[in-house]
UniProtKB/TrEMBL annotation:
Cellular component annotations (GO), alphabetically ordered: membrane
Protein name per UniProt: EGFL6 protein
Organismal lineage: Eukaryota, Metazoa, Chordata, Craniata, Vertebrata
SMART domains listed in its UniProt record: MAM
InterPro entries, per the entry: ConA-like_dom_sf, MAM_dom, MAM_domain-containing
Chain ranges of the MAM domain: 2-148
Length: 149
């Protein structure tokens, strides 16, 4: 597996420069490294912040599974979406406010067809709320189908 967690820095993460705000590192509760977060008060309603994971060397005609931790804390904090390069128009994954503020696991199957996916974008959309945050952590890419829970 390729570990793209933010504390290790083996992967190529880029802030999108055409968006409205940046994602920022936030310290983990237990103090072991950090995650990337967008606080609820940043920007205006419906502003977007995009964090891109650039992928190289994915083999064509192969399945991959992207596994990540995410948290949507706070009422009306907004939405978290994931886009693959070639499908800019529609997110492959989307989540708004969670039932609670716990970290959860997201999984996305990526099939490399003739066109290869060369980036994965985590997009945060600002909601109406003034508190809370959207967080992403522990991003891992494994080859093969996503494991069942």
């Amino acid at each position: 597996p390729v570990d793209c967690s933010f504390s290790r820095g083996v992967c190529d993460w880029k802030q999108d420069t055409d968006d409205d705000f940046d994602w920022n590192p936030a310290d983990r509760d237990r103090g072991d490294g950090y995650y990337m977060a967008v606080p609820g008060f940043v920007g205006h309603k419906e502003d977007m912040g995009r964090l891109k994971l650039l992928l190289t060397e994915l083999k064509p005609k192969t399945s991959y599974c992207l596994i990540f931790s995410y948290r949507l804390a706070g009422e009306r904090v907004g939405k978290l979406r994931v886009f693959l390069t070639n499908e800019k128009h529609a997110p492959v994954w989307e989540q708004d406010r969670g039932k609670d503020e716990r970290w959860r696991t997201g999984k996305i199957e990526i099939f490399q067809g003739g066109e290869t996916t060369n980036s994965i974008t985590f997009e945060s959309e600002r909601g109406k709320g003034k508190t809370g945050e959207i967080g992403v952590d522990n991003v891992i890419l494994i080859s093969g189908r996503c494991p069942e829970d």
